[in-house]
Model the fold of this input.
Amino acid sequence: GVPIPATLGHEADLGILALEDLGDVTVQAHVQAAPADSHAALYRHAVGLIDLLQRRGQALASSAYLPYGLALDVEKLTWELEFFLEHFLAGYRGAAISPDARRAICQEFRDLTEELATEPRVLCHRDYHSRNLMLHQDRLYVLDFQDARMGPCTYDLASLLKDSYVELKQQTVEELITYFLELTRSHVCQTDFRRRFDMMCLQRNLKALGTFGYQATVRRNDLYIQHMPRTLRYVGEHLRRYARFERLRELLATHLVELR
Done:
């Protein structure tokens, strides 16, 4: 039920798929060009598709499908954070991290990933943001879902609402979180859900910085440098919001002035 581009043909031996052409208008492009009052309905639609993905994902769960055998577990979430250390902090920013500091940072990361990995798992797109959502003939379509896997129900929501490419007003973020909880008929405490959401945002944004650093230093692709300041600001917001992250903020702030 999730709208995706149609497959028009394929050549298995060559590894080629011919997909429906959805044009050029991503949600990112639309938000930058369209009046602000048109954004709310679009984002409510996008949040609704997350709910649909999770509900249909549960109904159709089967070991016959690859995503159900993959998970955002401790190992995967930790690998993503270590990728941040290697390719953003050390690689892009040139930080010389002492062995003691690295051990302390990794322990903080481990505490975060272990808590995230204990949450009940749902089907996640895994890269659900404004560049992977397209508008075509007044309909929203989802792209780039080949890394779908099981993970926390907050994962895709965090990707969408704390997007490195489009920044939403805080009031809009709060309203869309409430809307998601209404859609899912969740009886969880909203304060607790918001804490879990923020934790997921922190992990996700650190992971994004690792990807941006990798693109800049290894792939020699400077396109993502412009998105680093916003993503770093998100990280700082989440670290400062909770006392439990004060130690992690101090450790990272040694090398990142934005977190001081």
In short: The CA atoms of residues 51 and 183 lie 7 Å apart.
